[in-house]
């Protein structure tokens, strides 16, 4: 079978995009997805995303991690999918789409900046040394010293596989405050099982965690990831956050055909 694929990246979090409006993609073939995402034997990506038809909204998002398993929401992937939908002519400059965590609204401007509404966050668990919440995907957020040289893979993986999060595990974000409303972030991603250059649901969790713990009073927060800058804005009452928007670039990289 020959697949036409498109490669996109959002602040260095990279994805294989497939237009599956014809429903031809074998959605349960975990090995195929993992192989397409493999950086040596395949195209290479942190995840694979299918764009599918939906009768009620502009399109449906189906997200797989690079290990080949379908997973929960991907913020950067959602932003890239909106840019992909625009390129395909499925949408113009705004989108309503459905993903595993529910409905999303997004806008895209002519510079390729995509602003994606994330799900409301109605529950934040605050512990002495970390914060946990679900922003569409589960996220552990922890402030650390020496973020530049921090061993994100080693410590992230030990937290992800620790008893804290059971079999499902969690993504793990390490944070360093650099200004009143600005934070550096590095993320260990579940399903990639490594550090990625950026994680959209992760920086969303970081922005909310920094606000709820009083590290910032701002409701628009700048997050510097290894792959570039993202902004997260929100409204909140206590620890309930709504109108949460994740904003940043989503960029086409290349297109190709792969035989499998
Ligand atoms: N890179 C993503 C997060 C993808 C999901 C995550 N790996 C998981 O399985 O929880 C993002 O930008 O949000």
UniProtKB/TrEMBL annotation:
SUPFAM superfamilies per the UniProt record, alphabetical: Diaminopimelate epimerase-like
EC numbers: 5.1.1.7
Binding site for substrate: 13, 65, 75-76, 171, 189-190, 200-201
Catalytic activity: (2S,6S)-2,6-diaminopimelate = meso-2,6-diaminopimelate
GO molecular-function terms, A-Z: diaminopimelate epimerase activity
Main location per the UniProt record: cytoplasm
Subcellular location(s) of the protein: Cytoplasm
Active site: residue positions: 74, 199
Site (described: Could be important to modulate the pK values of the two catalytic cysteine residues): 139, 189
Pfam families: DAP_epimerase
UniProt xrefs under Gene3D superfamilies: Diaminopimelate Epimerase, Chain A, domain 1 (3.10.310.10)
Pathway where this protein functions: Amino-acid biosynthesis; L-lysine biosynthesis via DAP pathway; DL-2,6-diaminopimelate from LL-2,6-diaminopimelate: step 1/1
Keywords: Amino-acid biosynthesis, Cytoplasm, Isomerase, Lysine biosynthesis
Record note on quaternary structure: Homodimer.
Function of the molecule: Catalyzes the stereoinversion of LL-2,6-diaminopimelate (L,L-DAP) to meso-diaminopimelate (meso-DAP), a precursor of L-lysine and an essential component of the bacterial peptidoglycan.
Family as reported in the entry's similarity comment: Belongs to the diaminopimelate epimerase family.
Protein name listed in UniProt: Diaminopimelate epimerase
Protein source organism: Flavobacterium rhizophilum
């Amino acid at each position: 079978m020959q697949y036409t694929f498109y490669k996109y990246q959002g602040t260095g979090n990279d994805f294989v995009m497939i237009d599956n409006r014809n429903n031809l993609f074998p959605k349960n073939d975990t090995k195929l997805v993992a192989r397409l995402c493999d950086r040596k034997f395949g195209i290479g990506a942190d995840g694979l995303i299918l764009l599918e038809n939906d009768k009620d909204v502009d399109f449906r998002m189906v997200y797989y991690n690079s290990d080949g398993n379908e997973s929960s929401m991907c913020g950067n992937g959602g932003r890239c999918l909106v840019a992909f939908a625009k390129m395909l002519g499925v949408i113009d400059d705004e989108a309503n789409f459905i993903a595993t965590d529910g409905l999303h609204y997004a806008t895209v401007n002519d510079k390729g900046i995509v602003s994606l509404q994330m799900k409301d966050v109605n529950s934040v668990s605050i512990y002495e040394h970390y914060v946990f919440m679900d922003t569409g995907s589960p996220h552990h957020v922890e402030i650390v010293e020496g973020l530049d040289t921090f061993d994100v893979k080693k410590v992230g993986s030990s937290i992800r596989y620790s008893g804290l999060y059971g079999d499902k595990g969690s993504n793990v974000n390490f944070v360093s405050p650099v200004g009143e409303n600005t934070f550096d972030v590095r993320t260990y991603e579940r399903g990639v099982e490594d550090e990625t250059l950026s994680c959209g649901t992760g920086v969303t969790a970081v922005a909310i965690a920094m606000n709820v713990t009083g590290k910032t009073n701002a409701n628009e927060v700048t997050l510097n990831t290894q792959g570039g800058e993202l902004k997260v804005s929100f409204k909140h009452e206590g620890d309930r956050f709504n109108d949460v928007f994740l904003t940043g670039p989503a960029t086409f990289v290349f297109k190709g055909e792969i035989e499998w």
